[in-house]
Every structure is written in structure tokens, then in C-alpha cells.
Records
---
Amino acid sequence: MSRRRTVAVVTPYYPPKIGGVEQYTARLAAAVAADPGMRAVVITTRLDGGLRTRVSTEDGVLVVRLGAWLKLSNTPLSPLWPLQLRRWLRRTGADVVNAHAPVPGLGDLAVAAAGRRRTTVLTYHAGSMHKGAAGSGAADRLIGLYERAVLPRVFARARHLVAVSPVSLADGRPHAVRITPGVDTDRFTPGEPASRRPRTIVYVGRMDRSSAWKGVDVLVRAFARLARDVPEARLRLVGDGDALPGLRALAAELGVAERLQTPGALSGEALADAVRTAAVLALPSLTEAESFGMALVEGMACATPLVGSDVGGIPHVVADGETGLLVPPGDPDALAAACAKLLTDGGLADRMGAAGRRTAEEHYAWPRLTARYLELFRDRSASPH
């Protein structure tokens, strides 16, 4: 009997931190652990800023959390990682390294540390990470240098590339395949038709100042506009981050503070319930950094109609006029009008919600997506570079 293959999933962040990449990697680790021929190991970073490595077993998966010496924007860094990655890949007997980016650093180093004998699979989750905001010139120059000079070398070294959407910088490369994020269609299930739900618009995602490209402030401004015409409407921002106090202050300035709900980060059934009881799910992102938008497929699975920006990967997920409505990024008037339309046209909202559920079942259920990963992990050829 051949020994089980050990797959090391290397990701900058991992649950309990909540986010799309974190859910994606947790689902992969669980699929590997459930396969009788494989064993899962996760190598990630500590969330508390500690310097020492911590090791634990979480849901049957060995999780190694490396310390970080500093953090630049949303990027943890440590000069010890090259040595630590080699040590832990050797100690765990890793046969396969599945690294996740775009946060520079850990994923890139993991592909290099894997060497030539291990199968390397690099999953790239974003388009260009250019922020394009006022005051981000220096950061954008560094990002541009990384994307032009470093990233192509990392892509070339990986045996397999996975692009999560057509917008991913890995998409279209000769050795790339496309495997989108998915959704647990048994947990994210429809509730009442959207027309019979409370008039709540929900946003699910992080709200960090370094992630201003998520456009949550645009959503708050849009809500203030539609609130005058839909007096029973409420806005619910699900998630945490250092931008949240500023968003609350903006809502107060615009006179809608009492209609804003901020329950913090939710997970499991609490998150599913927040999505299935909303009348609209909005994703107001501003740039191609939003290469997919996992909250969108969670909304579809719950038969919740969508409103999203026509940017990045969002139009590849939201079928405009079928599962939701697309609006120009950064346009609070257009965003307000689209949300108001779904809040006031119950027939349209119900049709879009039902179409979304069908799409989630047919294209985004996790088992068919993780099965494709397991095939890549079974590849016993090493990197050709």
C-alpha cells in the first residue's frame, strides 16, 4: 500500500481570520484531509502578531502558524520564512506545495522552498493589486515592480497555476487552469423569497483601510441616497476592520447611523443566516483587485439577488439582468438606483434570486471544484524548471 501524499497548503492568512482566500484554503485543506490517499498540512502566519511559531491541530489538520516580524499594508513579512518553510516542508514530509497569493511574500517563498522534487501548485486570487487611490503612489510603484519583475518568475517556477477567475494574473498562462471559489450549497440555502424579506442590503467582507478598493464607503453613500425613498431599508455591514469606525462616522454624517447595522465578523450558520435573510447582497468594489467575490456565490446560493460593480471578476460572476445588476464602480447614484430597484420590484428580485440558486448549484458547489484540485495534487511530476 502506497503512503499517503502530504499536501502543504501555504497561505498568508487562515481561519479564524475571515475572508475569501481564507475560506478557499480552509475548504481545500478539508478536502485533502477527507481523501484517504492524502494528508493535509497548513502553513500560514499568526494573527496575533507574535514572533514564535505555533503548531496546532484544527479540524483534523496540522496548522503551522509562523511569526511575522513586521506588516506592510496587508502583507506580513519575516526574514526567517525561507529557512522556516524549508524546515517545515521537510519535517512534515510534504510532497505537494499549494501556495496562495497575491499577498507577496509567503506564497512566493513557498514555491521557491518547494524545490524541484515536489509538485508545486500556485493559486493566484487577484488581478492587478494597484490601489489607484490618492496617496498610494509609492505603494503602486512597488506593486507594479513586483507584478512585472517578480511574479512572472514565480509563475514560471510553479508546476501548475490556478486562476480563480478570468481576471487573475495567472489566467491564460500556458500551464494555468481556472478553478473558481465555491460555496457550500448545503449551508447557504434559500430562505423566504427576496420579496418577502426585510428590506436589508447586506455587504460581507473585510473593512480595512488598506482595502479601500472594496468601496464600502461608496455603499454607505449610496444607502443614504436610497434611504430617502425606501424608508424601511437597512444596511448591514458584516465583517471587521480598522475602517469600520470611519464608516460608522460617515453614516452618522449622512444621517443614516440608526439604520446601519454592524454585527462584526460572522461565520458558519450566523453568516449564512445573514445572507439568506437579506433582500439584496451588494459588492461595491472599485478595482480589479476584486477578481471574484466569494460573497456573491454565497448570495446566489441563498437566492439573494445581487448588485455588484462592473469591474474585475464581478461581471464574470453576476449575470447582469439575470442573477443581479451591475453598476459602474465608484458611482453611488447608480448603486443606489440598482439596490432600490431590487428592494421595490419583488418579482424581479425573486426571479434573480431563483436564477442565482440554480447557478450556484450548477457551477459553484464545492465538491466539483475541490475534486479538480485533488487531481492536480496527485500529479507526481516535479516542477520542470
---
Amino acid sequence: MGSNIISIGLANPDNQIDQTQVFEFMGKAHGFEGDELNRLKALYRATGIKSRYSVIPDYSSSHFEEWKFYPKNHQLAPFPSTEQRLNLYRNEAAKLSLKSIQNALSQSRLQAQDFTHLITISCTGMYAPGLDIDLVHMLGLNTSIERTCVNFMGCYAAFTGIKLGDQICRANPKAKVLIVSTELCTIHFQKESDEDNLLANAIFGDGSAAVIMSADKEDALGEVVLQPNSFLNEIYPEGSSEMAWNIGNHGFEMRLSTYVPVLIEKGIHQLVERLKAKADKPNISHYAFHPGGKRILEVIESELGLSKEADWAGRKTLESYGNMSSPTILFVIKTLWDSLGKDEQGEQILSLAFGPGLTMESMLLQIA
């Protein structure tokens, strides 16, 4: 017996911020004027993002007297420490996770007490007792529930959670697995104006996605579920320094090089062909790609011979939410899933994501 993705629930912080507002905040924070400000504006226009969400309302205003988290001066002094940022993570991550889980539960026949396994995913904060234990208490989960934490794997980590959930359900058909992926990327804004920081500040947002997995399709309220068919990942070590998180004195420091699309371009076609061979020529009709950035989506589409219309769910997610790291691919899959009907049962979804390593993850989901 295999496994089923029964439902996916999504959640974002209350602060929806227009990309133009973020640009105005960042221009002030970096002290840019003239040509520097024009180049920053061009970067923000090129992202393909219209809005993002953040637990920090400050990004919606360039007037420092209105800021809640950052110091009320344009020098941002003293700049928030890692401790301050992780305190904010601790205060907000569980609440946002609870919203996405409740959303997922509302689409299933399960109750909180039914879950046998809990998998939490995050790379933007850690503490102990952690997010997993907070959710046990907040949801009223069984205190003997089996817990696994997937930390610091970055944008592809949801694939790890789904693979683990699939293995659990195959090993124990009575298992009910709850996976929650929550990232507060925007708490780690860095004010140094190097290329990596400018790019990271321009694309990342906050969000949470919860996945319910079960061997029993009847646990779903909807008429369509998604069944994991096949997985394949590859590591390209030449890109290990091109995408990374490092812990600094002022938060987590993201490195996201403009060379990443080039690395993906070199390896993505071969990875997909190997995945398809492993799955014995699947009937792929739909696509769900992690929108790490607009250029990454363009490279994937080109290498796989797809139109941007075929990749509509990834582009729509990028436009509305930016890159939220690990939950982003779940937003893409959910957006696509909501458009599917029973007449598409038997067709498959090709899904891809990328992260530190440089790691490329691929997955086939059957519509059932």
C-alpha cells in the first residue's frame, strides 16, 4: 500500500506588503541615491514579484518613526542581533504553523488526536524545546506522537518531509502523518549592500504550509488526492558556495548567487530524464516548480521545452508571495491542485526544487 497527500493547508502573516513598498524601505535602509537607487529599482522590477508577506510590518513604510522591529533611525542602529531575531521567530513561527495546520485539517476527515507522526521543517529559526513540542501542546496532539525535525535544508526541504511521510505510510498503513513547513525569511534582512544581500532582500517572504499524509484515501474530504510516485535528488558540489545559510551576529546570512540558474541549467534535463526512467515513462501533464527566482523558472522552462503557461502555478506563487524557502513548493502544488478535477486522475505532476549543496530535488505525484 502506498501513501496519499490528503490535503495541503497554507498560511501567511497578516502583513501583506507590496513589492514597491519593500523597495522604498530597502532604498532608505541601504542609503541609496541616484544610480544605486535606480539599479535597485530595476532589480525589484525584474523579480516578477508583486507582493510578499512578513511578520515584520516595517517593510511597508520608509518612515522610521513607524517601525516596530527595527531601530527608529535610517542607520538601523543598533542593528538587531541574532538573539532578537530568533526571539521573534519563537514568538511567531508556532502561531503561523497553527494556522496552516488548521487549514489542512479543515480539508480532511482527521482530528488532531489521529496523528501518529509529526514532521516540522524550518531553516530560519531554531530553539528548544522547539516548534514541534509547541505544536503538540497548541494542537492537543498525543504527547507520545513520533516527532522529526528537518532543519537547515533550505528551499527543497519539503521534499524531504514528503519522502519521509511516504516511507512512514508505506511501512505502517495505519499511520497519519502531519508535516508542517514554516519559514520567516524576512526576519533575517541584512543591510550590507553586496549582491547576495540585495537579491535575498528582493525575493524572500514568510509563509507556512502543512501537509497531511495517509495510506487511506478516504481520509480526504476532496475527491482528488496526490500520490507520491517517484523521487530523485542530485548534489552538484560545484555549487556548494552559491546557495547557503550562515549564522552571523546579526541573523542568518543568505548567500544566493546569480550563478545558481546556470548550475540548474547544466543539470536539470538529465535529472528529469533519470526520474522519468525510474518511474517507467509517466504521464506528465502538470508542472510544479519551486520559484527560487524568475530566472530559475525561465531556465527550467527552456531546458524542458515548456512554455511559461505550463509553469503557471510557479509563476503565480512567485508573483503573490515571493520565495518563502521550504513552504514555497507546497504553495505551488496546492495552487495547481485546486485547479484539478476527477477527469485528470491518472495524470502526473512533475515537481522540482533546489537548495544548498547545490541540491536538486525532483518528484512525481500521481493524481488519484
---
Amino acid sequence: MTAIDQSRTVAVVGTGTMGQGIAQVALAAGHPVRLYDAVPGRAAEAAKTIGARLDRLVEKGRMDAPERDAARARLHPAADLAELADAALVVEAVLEQLKIKQELFTALEELVADDCLLATNTSSLSVTAIAGALKHPGRFVGLHFFNPAPLLPLVEVVSGFATDEASATRAWATAAAWGKTPVRCADLPGFIVNRIARPFYAEAFAVYEERGADPATIDAVLRESGGFQMDPFELTDLIGQDVNEAVTRSVWESFFQNEKFTPSLPQRRLVEAGLLGRKSGRGWYDYAEGAVRPEPHTAEPADAPEYVIAAGDLGAAAELLDLIRESGITVRQEGEDIGNRLVLPSGGQLGLADGQMSGEFRDVVFFDLALDYRAATRIALSASPDTPERTVLEATGLFQALGKEVSVIGDVPGMIVARTVAMLVDAAADAVAKGVATEDDIDTAMRLGVNYPLGPLEWSRRLPQGWAYELLQELDLRYPGGRYAPSVALFQHSLAGDAKGAAE
């Protein structure tokens, strides 16, 4: 099935930010576009706004004047829904209310031709439920663009329970022809991105709620160690705390209040207080004129140890051994294997976060996972109040000798990056197992939709076999209730290496 021909009309219903963005994308692809809004006059206003955006593109050299003039000539506001009758595709971007959407598409079904694709841009409602009111739900599909639609490449193409394969394929081909990167997914709560991204926010908020670290420190660790370009506290302030919390609550309720998707109480309090982020002037951070942005906690300089003893290979942090040697610190390979830990001169141990707590041991400091230890500019350490100060100072001095800023956080199981990545990996593996999308489409969606440095499944392949499963098992022991219980899919993945070894 090929894409909708460029000469065919694309109609957009709803002229808010998303509707205008989708209309601009269709215009740029060469289609005639009709804009409709139930509120009189709004479609005409939206057409003017889009025209002004095209003017700015010309000013910036991203579009030439004749191209702009041709696009303007193809853009037509519609005063009545009946003016959309000749459309080959209608994309809806109205209020996220099931009844409103069903009534709209029921009316459209009586107007448009049989070969017209009907699409919803919903991010939270069931595509199947919206299509349930239609006589011919096979031509109904989800086309979930990301804001701002003209700039972000990802489009989730969502097949409802009754969507025909040909309709989904045509929608995918059309999005690709528009220069977007479409991914296919099933109609399950949150689709791909809004489902799998929940732990990125939830784990940061949980560390904060446990008083493990402040927002600025958590954001800095995820950015400077985890490689995430946007941080959860900063990002939710940008999105709007009310919007982000509503999506989390919608996914949670759609999964019958599954513990893994439980909303954050601190975030709920922000919403109740009207502290919605940038749009209200304050959220996790203060955006008032002259407000000083808080700095992440950074440890004072400490002396580097002369040597460390490595009995194992540090697992997911194995590259640290080379960095330590390059810094001039001696690495002694001796003694019995103590797992992913180093022995410091004082006798204390430094271990990669594995879901255990420093307070469970006499003299252990944990360090967090990094996307790339060589490139990381900050490393988090976790210690209990009873951990000897000399061990914390030796661990701090070691990482500072490697050129890293050090943030010492509370005694939090799994720390910050490690628990976040493990939960993302688990969510992605579970989604694949349940037919939400393929591994490649999930990784593509998470890189393009929320700008992750790696897709979670690609990240998992870089980590030792069973790493995420074992860390979540430890977290599940310390936080019983199901939130951290690893999925069956992750369990099966953890067995794959053992099964291969046994076969050989």
C-alpha cells in the first residue's frame, strides 16, 4: 500500500498547537490542507498563524518564498465539517474526551469517501474505543505526532483492535512520505513512548521522595552520568506538571492501577499547589525573574588513593579499570573475587550499584551506572550514615582523579541511573513480549520521541546478561509490593545466556 497521493486533500480537525503543527507538516509535504474547528473563526485564525510560521521559515532560509506562497495557497480554513468531504485523510486533534472524539468521527464517516483514512492524534485514549462508535472501524488508525510536530520526527502509527492492516500500512507510508520516522504499535495504554517513559520520571521522583537527593542533583546525575539530554525535573517543568501527571495517571488507570505505573505524590502536590512549571513560573524549579537555579550537590576535593585492588572485572563498569590505570593509580589484581567491587587502601569497598544498600554492609560505598564512564563528567556515590568517612573520601578522590565531579547521595537502593535504566529495560522487554511493538521500533521511538541516548533494549544489550533482572530482584526485596518485580520477559532474557552456554 502506497502513501496518500500528494494531490489529495488532508483535513485537520482541531486547531490547537498540535492541530496547527500537523497541518503545517501536511502542507510542507505538498498536500492541500483544510482546517476545521468547532469554534467559529478559530480555523481562520489558525491559518493565519501557520502562514506567519511559514514567513519565519523564509526569513531563516529554511523555505523559499515561492514555496511558501504555494503552501499558503493550498491552506483553506473550513467553516463547516461538510467541507472536508473530499479529504483522503482526516486527522483529529481535539479535546482528549472519548465522547467528543466518537461524535466527531461518527459525523465524518457519513461525509467522507469510503477510501478516506480516519486518524486520531490521541496520546491517552484507546484507539479501539474511539473507533468503536464507527460502522467501518477498519479504516481508523492512530497517528500520534509529538510536539512540536513540524520539528520532531517521530510518529506512532497505532493499530486499534479493528484496524485493517492495509489502513495501518497506508498511514505508515504517508507519515514516511511526509519526512517523518513512523513506528508501528498496538493499541495498548501509553502506546510506546508514554508507556515506557514512565520510569524515567517515576524513579527520579521516588529518589527525591526518599530524600536521597534534591532535584538539581538527580537531574545532573542523569544528564552527566546517564547521558540523558533532558532531565526529569527540568523536563516535566517544561511539559507542565499537570500534563505529565495526567498522562502518568491515565496510564496507571488504564493498567488497572498497576503498581509499576503509580503516580508520584510529590508531583501531585505540585499540581494541587498550582506549581505547574515554566508556564506558571514555578514547578520543581523557580522561573521567576532573577531566581537562582540551584546547583547539584558536588563533593569537595579529596585525595586520590594510591592504589585499588580489583578481584573481579566490575561487570557493567569494567571500563573503569582502564581509566583508573590511565590516571596513574595502581590497580592490583589479587585476592578472591568479590564481584563488582574494588577494595580501597583503607579496606573499604567500592561497588557498582546493584540494588543493595550501603547500610547493609560494614564498609561499602556504591557508585552509579554510567552510559559511558570515559565520557561521563559526574558520578554519584551512595553511602549510609554509618559508612566510615575515610571510605567515602577515598571513593570521592578516586573518581575526582578520573576527572569526574562527584555527588554523594543518600543510601538509596539502585541509586539513580542504575534503577532508572533497569526499569526502562524491563518496561521495554515487557512491551515487546506483549506485542506493543518490535524491539527496533521501541528503541527508535524512545530515541526520537524523548531523546534518550540509547533505546532501552540497545542499552540492555550493552550490559552484562541478566544485569537489569538481578538489580530489579534486589529492589523488589527492599520495596515489596510489585513495583520493581521484574517481568517474565526480563526473566526469560536473563536465562538466555545460561541456556546458550548449556547448549554449547
